[in-house]
Write a structure and sequence with these properties.
nine-stranded mixed β-sheet; 19 strands; alpha+beta; single chain; eight-stranded mixed β-sheet; 30% helix; FAD/NAD(P)-binding domain
């Protein structure tokens, strides 16, 4: 079986790239491991919140400013992206650009929110500072313990499961093919790239895009071992009764994301290096306690479900985009989006498509895979963001 571009991974990043390329007339095949390589969206609540989701925190070196800029660009691409996706599929992805509210429970947290507001204003991001009374008037579900708030007007959320479902439909309607299976081997000698599938058969491609999330295929494609590693995230959903939050709220120890189907998603834990998919009861109990502290009406809410997923972490918490220098430039990486895969899907898809199709654009140097090319597995693991090493 032959194709122009084979995309390894059928999550939000891989499917967005496939939709963009297929819409431009490319022959695209998505190879998705499904249950063998769980998607990062299983750990996601679908927040589109660069101000609160770590774009600028726990980052090292040049990646920090670059990721802030890239995140904001992708956030501002989301309205058109969501409209196009819903128009192409007729599917509701529960996209809500209704803002995100961060809350402080003590003076130290209030000072941190104030510093964050200053940084957002310098970056041209719309933010509204709220005192305790204004925060509770704005979101009546909040605890009396809230002392301050910060409302990010441009941010919002989407349902990640609905998003991936719609992207799969959109990519197929645009002409992309989808094949389920795990790539056992990549062969680069002469002619087209050859992908040997674990279940039997081959796919021949002129180029491949590695969008395998926390899966191991990045190593087979040339990435040093230990650079892209799983960061387990546990989350749960509560039944949304009267008095729960009306919008996304982020507070000490948890975020609360009300969904259109009546749930409130509460997340999320972080455990670096773990590929276990059994939800951690202790971690989920802490999330429940934190949710009830932020919004007391959730204290007695019934649990609807619980789950765990694997985020693809990198040593500097920034994505890996582009080919490795001095290697086969037909192999392009689009991995390591960590906590921000849903947020960064539109900008990543446009960047990868622009470069592969020869349109305007350059691979961002701060996200180059070459920044990790000489790292040993031990060095990569030891420089994992501190927030994820627990």
């Amino acid at each position: 079986m032959r194709t122009d571009t084979a995309i390894i991974g059928g999550g939000a990043i891989g499917l967005s790239i496939a939709w963009e390329l297929a819409g431009a007339g490319e022959k695209v095949m998505i190879i998705d491991g499904r249950s063998a390589v769980p998607r990062a969206t299983k750990a996601a609540a679908g927040m589109l919140a660069p101000s609160f989701e770590g774009a600028g925190r726990h980052l090292l070196g040049a990646a920090s400013a670059a990721l802030q800029d890239f995140s904001l660009r992708s956030l501002r691409a989301w309205p058109a992206f969501a409209e196009a996706l819903q128009g192409a599929t007729g599917m509701d992805i529960d996209y809500r650009p209704e803002g995100v509210l961060g809350v402080a429970m003590d003076d130290a947290e209030a000072d941190a929110l104030s510093d964050q507001a200053d940084a957002m204003e310098r970056a041209g991001v719309k933010a509204e500072r709220l005192d305790a009374r204004a925060a509770r008037e704005f979101e009546p579900s909040l605890s009396d313990c809230v002392v301050a708030g910060l409302f990010a007007l441009e941010e919002g959320q989407v349902d990640p499961v609905r998003l991936v479902g719609a992207l799969e439909v959109a990519a197929k309607r645009a002409g992309a093919e989808m094949r389920f299976g795990v790539v056992a081997r990549l062969e680069t000698t002469g002619g087209a790239l050859r992908l040997r599938l674990a279940g039997g058969g081959f796919v021949f491609a002129e180029r491949i895009v590695v969008a395998s999330g926390a899966g191991a295929f990045a190593v087979a494609a040339g990435m040093p071992a230990g650079v892209v590693q799983p960061v387990k995230g546990d989350a749960l959903a509560l039944s949304h009764g009267a008095g729960g939050p009306a919008r996304v709220v982020r507070g000490r120890g948890a975020y609360l994301c009300p969904k259109a189907d009546g749930r409130v998603v509460v997340g999320a834990t972080e455990t670096a290096g773990s590929d276990r998919l059994d939800p951690d009861a202790d971690g989920l109990a802490r999330l429940r306690d934190a949710a009830a502290t932020i919004a007391p009406a959730l204290a007695h809410a019934k649990e609807a479900s619980r789950w765990a997923g694997l985020r693809p972490g990198t040593p500097d918490a920034a994505p890996i985009l582009g080919p490795l220098a001095h290697r086969d430039d037909r192999i392009v990486f689009a991995v390591g989006h960590y906590r921000n895969g849903v947020l960064l899907a539109p900008a990543t898809a446009r960047l990868v498509a622009d470069r592969l199709l020869g349109r305007e654009g350059q691979w961002p140097a701060a996200f180059s895979p070459d920044r990790f090319a000489e790292r040993s597995p031990d060095a990569a693991m030891s420089s994992t963001p501190a927030a994820a090493r627990r």
